[in-house]
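Archive entry: two folds, one per protein. Generate the first.
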Amino acid sequence: MYLKNDHITLRALEPEDLEHFYRWENDSSLWSVSSAVEPYSRYVIKQYLAEADKTIYEKNQLRFIIERNVDKAVLGAVDLFDFDSHHLRAAVGVLVDKNFQNQGVGTESVALLITYAFEFLNLKQLYANVPITNTVSKALFSKLQFSHTGTLKKWLRQGRDFVDVEILQLLQ
């Protein structure tokens, strides 16, 4: 199975995920990496979840909930976005809930996503844009064999400063 291992399952979004997304999307400490500039209402998130039935080919994005197998706890979310069906590539994003960080959840989730993307969707490359200040994400992608292939200078604003972003790629 592509989206499951002994510890976690990557599952489709459900209406019951509303409160998780509401909390994550409104955590202003995450806005600098998501390009968000304002909070999201429950109504807007409910509409987003209602559109979750569309395929990656329709919306160029596919998001999964990371769920722990033993007790169905929601650990975070992982997604493919900026999907390009012509060039067979997509960007990778991962968010691990603060309560479950530093437990290998991110690495396991992205590893499952890589297998799904390459073996099922037949993509040829995945990439991630990671702020140089995000050492945890850089280590995660490095562990999964992503290579640093470029740097976007002063790409993201963090407060009054701008930080570089590393382009990390994994080719099949």
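Generate the second and append.
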Amino acid sequence: MKTKFLIVLYIIFAVALSQSCSKFEPVAPDEGEILDGPVEGLSFDQNRQFLAGDVAFNDEIFTSQTGLGSVFVATSCGSCHAGDGKGTPFTTLTRFGQIDTTGNQFLHLGGPQLQNRALPGFTPEQLPQGATFSKFTPPANTGLGFLELVSDADILAMADPTDANGDGISGVPNYNYLPSFIQPFTSAIPQGGKYIHRFGKKASAYNLLHQTVNAYNQDIGITSTFNPKDVYSGNNIDPEISDQTIHNVVFYLQTLKVPIQRNSNDAEVIKGKNLFTQIQCSSCHTPMLKTGVSNIAPLSNKIFFPYTDLLLHDMGSGLDDGYTEGSAMTYEWRTPPLWGLGLSPKSQGGEYFLMHDGRAKSIEEAIQLHSGEALQSKNNFNQLSQENKNALIKFLKSL
């Protein structure tokens, strides 16, 4: 009897202790306040692959024993994309060597990416004399699987290379050749053997496999069966990462959830959203897109709101870095998605580092750097009353 009493007493004590300790546990963040996490509706096996990709992306830190370098930019994927958000000036990449559509003339000298760090005993790369270059701040990762599934037909429907409608905006896709390890989408619409690319500041990567393989190789110096070229020696070497890990990371990126808009019913946010359209920001930052058919059911035939047209636009001489990729001009940049914009400071040390190279320290400053095809929208913004400007900025921060 005494033993039973002691057991009951122990259970009561354990429950009480658990409840008291729970008061000191941090409150779980609201889903709208974080960027990472899987899309809803994955199967058990898909969730398991998502978690495997999450570990490879965020937890695996490479060393010289596991293939790092000999020259590199980062030691892990997650170090450039904290919480799957934007990077900072400390993680900004340097791309160099191409000045026009004839291709990169500095590939034999380390192009297209500068590996600015090195293992002991090795020398980091230096920019070759005469090479133009640009700084690229790492983008947020969320929702990429949805963007991958926008059809070529839909992208071309948003393009207007001759400005036929006379609105001053003439977005074009970036056409480029595919690497040998990439199979084009069944719905692809090629042009002269080239295919529409959509990822990266200049839309230079075709899909998330292309982007992932390039990142492992150029950012961390990791070879794979897809790209066995060692960035230091220039020779082909044995793979330093498995195909399965590559596929897990690709699946992780494909199935990250879309950013959730906050305060969407707020009157000022609604007002700002209407102003966004009125001053023609939505001409490039297209609010709504849709996916095609996917073998990942939660991504298939979905409407989503990324605020991009995935096209290249002339952004004016102030943003012309003299460097390009693919068929893009030096002054052309792919419209960046605006979803998740309001959460950018969470991964950027509490500050904003916007535009392709992080030079804008606020949303207002980013708007002022718009020119070229975006000049009229910028002028329209500048003509708004301060009250309306505040509403527009509040809307953008809600994304």
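Annotation attached to the second fold: Residues 32-260+311-362 form one domain. The beta strands are 71-72, 93-96, 117-118, 133-136, 174-176, 195-197, 289-290, 303-304, 312-314, 332-334.
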